[in-house]
Design a protein that fits this description.
The complex is a heterodimer. Chain A is an alpha/beta fold. Helix content of chain A is about 30%, strand content about 15%. Chain A has two domains: about 40 residues, no CATH class; about 120 residues, no CATH class. In chain A, the strands form two sheets. In chain A, strands 1, 3, 5, 6 and 7 form a five-stranded mixed β-sheet that branches. In chain A, strands 2-4 form a two-stranded antiparallel ribbon. The N and C termini of chain A lie far apart (about 45 Å). Chain B has one domain.
């Protein structure tokens, strides 16, 4: 295998990008140890914090379907789901928010949004200096989607782009409802 | 980007293989505990953030061993006190 081949392979494997593993590792294992029990599917990508939480900007992403009461809700009745997401201002309080979701019990979250979307607890930690800051907006969508590939291309990609590009978050708390 | 998930569905989280997750043995829709139980909600958030700082093993799933029966009992007490803590 030439150096050019190796760089092409590593570039084509997004699971190795930005991780602690050296590029082309999986190809090396498969070449040297054919029949190895280590499979590429076993690999779990993981990024690590580059600075302390006290100086990091955190975002919150949840499939709980919460949004401002003043916003038009997502479509909870569509048989395939709604492939859009909502921005929730990180300064919002419980009384300003509402959940539109039919696929999980949210009676208790209706009483106190922090049960599923701990926005006020994060505001407190930020105020105390335990967190460096919060992104201007948090993100919410409806977890019921019948087309996972479309979901990945639309909701997941657009939230990821907003979290990194617009909000410049350093880390994310994920709450899959 | 470093991420940490808070989950109540261990089997789903194991299948998906997220970078790191905090597992609570609680019902759907109650990832951070019970209404008005500020201390417990805070404990879950801090547990997740702690894992974000220290969880360097890809695919780590950490348990927070608090039984739902305990949470309900504490929540009932809070409710009787006028839903304040």
């Amino acid at each position: 295998m030439t150096a050019a081949d190796k760089s092409t392979l590593s570039a084509a494997d997004p699971r190795e990008a930005g991780t602690q593993l050296r590029p082309g590792l999986w190809q090396t294992i498969n070449e040297r140890y054919p029949g190895s029990m280590i499979r590429k599917e076993s690999f779990v990508p993981q990024a690590r914090l580059t600075k302390p939480l006290a100086t990091s900007r955190l975002t919150l992403v949840s499939s709980c379907g919460v949004h401002l009461k003043t916003d038009k809700p997502l479509d909870v009745c569509h048989p395939f789901g709604d492939f859009r997401f909502m921005r929730v201002p990180s300064w919002a309080k419980h009384d300003e928010l509402i959940i539109h979701q039919l696929k999980y019990p949210h009676d208790d979250a209706d009483l106190d949004i922090n049960v599923i979307f701990p926005i006020e607890r994060l505001q407190e930690l930020c105020h105390e200096g335990r967190l460096g800051g919060l992104t201007s907006n948090f993100f919410s969508f409806i977890g019921y989607n019948m087309d996972p590939e479309k979901f990945e291309r639309t909701v997941a990609a657009e939230i990821a782009e907003a979290v990194v590009g617009e909000e410049r978050a350093d880390c994310a708390l994920l709450a899959p409802a | 980007m470093p991420t940490v998930s808070v989950t109540v569905a261990r089997d789903v989280t194991e299948a998906i293989k997220v970078p790191r997750a905090l597992f609570l043995p609680w019902p759907m829709g109650h990832h951070f505990g019970a209404p008005f139980h500020r201390d417990l909600q805070r404990r879950v958030v801090l547990g997740a953030l702690g894992l974000l700082e220290t969880g360097d093993e890809p695919g780590t799933i950490l348990d927070l061993p608090v039984k739902w029966a305990e949470v309900r009992r504490e929540a009932k007490t809070l409710s009787e006190q006028g839903r304040k803590l």
